[in-house]
What does this fold into?
Amino acid sequence: MKRHIVNARVFDGEKFLDARTVTLEHQRIAAVGETPAAGEEVFDANGATLVPGLIDAHVHTSIDGLRDALKFGVTTELEMQGYWTRQQRKEIDDDDSLADVRSSLLALMSDGGHPSELMHDLGEHGPGEGGWTMPHVTTPDDAVAHVNTFVEQGADYLKVMIEEGTVMGHPGLPLIDPAAVKAGVDEAHRLGKKVIAHAITLEATRQAIDAGVDGLAHLFVDQRADERIVSALVEAGVFVAPCLVVSASLMGYHAAALADDPRVASRLSEPWLDTLRGSFNAYPQGVFQHVLDSVAALHAAGVDLLAGTDASIPVPSHGGVAHGASVHHELALLTEAGLSPSAAFTAATATPARCFGLTDRGRIAPGLRADLLLMDGDPFTTISDSLSVTAIWRRGTRHAA
Ligand SMILES: [Zn+2]
It folds into this structure.
């Protein structure tokens, strides 16, 4: 049975279409611009804006996180360190009340290195509840073994930590030996998997590029991008999820205004609203405008930019960020860096789908998953209207907002 969304302004992930109707059949988009036949189900969008379901390119998630994400039209979360069994993954796949997830599973990290410095304030959210312990990668052989272990357990891509701690407020954290990072990247590529690096300083970013990673899960915050790093990223074809919301949080900015927005307050629990009102504040000496300037420079150079948040757990010391809601905040910050609203939405839809090889989503086109978000107002003029979510479809199942 076909269902038609009619009278919508349709942004396909890259551009607006002339068509105003999108037709769904089962879990897929069947057609764009088709005229409904008599008796077929019609949903009137009343002129609202329809975009592909949003993709958050950097999270650490949970069932609750996936549920919150979907409430804000985020239909896929890309986890950059976390753990799920294959059975749990299958249950998430089949549950249309949750965002879909892709995961690196556990990251390559050194003994005592990042993110172990964060573990003391995680409380009940710390490692162990999923029955896993933190990996310790020291030698190239360890890295190769780690990659094989987690690919066998279902990792969709690999994550590697390159973090000596300065901007996390813990200088002197042990790094993985660069030779081990390189061995891990090479092994992942041999197995057909991409590698995404955690690097928040310019120096760590250079090391990640030298190791041959495919993407960056953050943008460095300790300096403004210079020509040299921009051309190195362009030449290496590396994509970047700047995660502006968490960069701002590292510098002490909270997101209380977001928590106070009724469109957010009505969808999140108190612990998450309190989390939005907090901040990491580990690097207050940072200059956020430099990060915005770097994003502008990368965008001008044609580097693929992805919307990501680093949303994780409801702890105010990891604050300023929440699942779902913060993707909308990230869209706004990307426009503050100079991207057009259209480019910001592309960073949350078509670009992450392409960079992560998610060929079944991220655009509105026949044959793709019916993961969709409908917004009132005019988010392509006033980006904050993106939070005026009126309906969400996950594999064709509609959730009224
Ligand atoms: Zn993260």
Observations:
- The first strand starts at residue 2 and ends at 6.
- The chain has one domain: 53-361.
- The chain has a mean pLDDT of 94.
- The chain is about 30% helix and 15% strand.
